[in-house]
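testing teh design pipeline on a random one, pls ignore if ur not involved
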C-alpha cells in the first residue's frame, strides 16, 4: 500500500498543476454523466505555430471547456479563441491582427482504466490540455497566409511592394535594355566600339 502511494506521487509529479493548461477534474467526480463547464484565460505556450504564422508565446487564449465524466474517463470538449501573428507569404509584411477559433475534443482515460498505450490519460485528477489544443490550433493555421487575397507581392527584380507601385517597370533601368535600344537607333545610345557608322551619325547632331 505504501508502494502504491509512492507510485501515485511519482505520476502526479509529471503534470504540474501550476501549468495553466493542466486542468483539475476533482470537482467533477467520477460518476458517469456528471458535467462541469470551465472557462480559462491562459497565456499561450511556446511553439503553437508553423513557420509563417502562429500564436505568439504568452498571448491570451480564451478557452471554454466542457468536462463530462464517462465510463472510462473524462471527455473534454472545448473551443479556443487564439490571436495570431505572422507575415504575408507574398509581400512579407506583418499580417493585421487576426483570431482563430478552433474546436477540439479528447477523452482522458482514468489512470487505472485499460486503454491503448498512447491514449491520453488523467494523471491523478489532472489532465494536460496542451497537446490536443496545440494540434487543433496548428492544424487550423493557414499554410500560406496573405495580407489580402489580391496582395500583389514583391517585385522579383527589386523587391519593391507592387501594391504601392503598381505601374512599376524596370525596362529603362536595365543597362542591357538600354544597349539594345542603342543598337536599333535610339538617341540615348552611347558610342561603342562596334558601331562606327552610328557614331558618325551621332556626331552630325
Ligand atoms: Zn501581402
Ligand atoms: Zn522592381
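output:
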Amino acid at each position: 500500500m505504501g508502494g502504491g502511494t509512492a507510485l501515485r506521487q511519482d505520476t502526479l509529479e509529471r503534470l504540474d498543476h501550476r501549468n495553466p493548461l493542466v486542468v483539475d477534474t476533482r470537482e467533477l467526480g467520477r460518476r458517469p454523466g456528471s458535467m462541469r463547464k470551465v472557462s480559462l484565460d491562459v497565456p499561450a505556450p511556446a511553439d503553437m505555430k508553423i513557420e509563417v504564422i502562429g500564436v505568439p508565446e504568452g498571448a491570451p487564449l480564451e478557452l471554454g471547456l466542457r468536462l463530462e465524466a464517462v465510463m472510462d474517463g473524462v471527455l473534454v470538449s472545448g473551443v479556443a479563441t487564439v490571436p495570431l501573428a505572422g507575415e504575408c507569404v507574398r509581400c512579407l509584411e506583418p499580417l493585421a491582427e487576426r483570431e482563430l477559433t478552433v474546436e477540439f475534443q479528447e477523452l482522458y482515460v482514468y489512470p487505472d482504466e485499460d486503454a491503448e498505450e498512447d491514449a491520453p490519460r488523467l494523471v491523478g485528477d489532472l489532465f494536460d490540455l496542451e497537446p490536443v489544443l496545440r494540434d487543433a490550433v496548428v492544424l487550423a493555421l493557414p499554410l500560406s497566409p496573405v495580407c489580402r487575397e489580391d496582395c500583389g507581392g514583391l517585385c522579383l527584380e527589386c523587391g519593391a511592394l507592387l501594391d504601392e507601385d503598381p505601374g512599376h517597370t524596370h525596362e529603362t533601368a536595365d543597362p542591357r535594355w538600354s544597349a539594345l535600344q542603342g543598337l536599333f537607333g535610339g538617341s540615348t545610345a552611347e558610342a561603342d566600339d562596334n558601331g562606327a557608322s552610328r557614331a558618325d551619325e551621332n556626331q552630325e547632331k
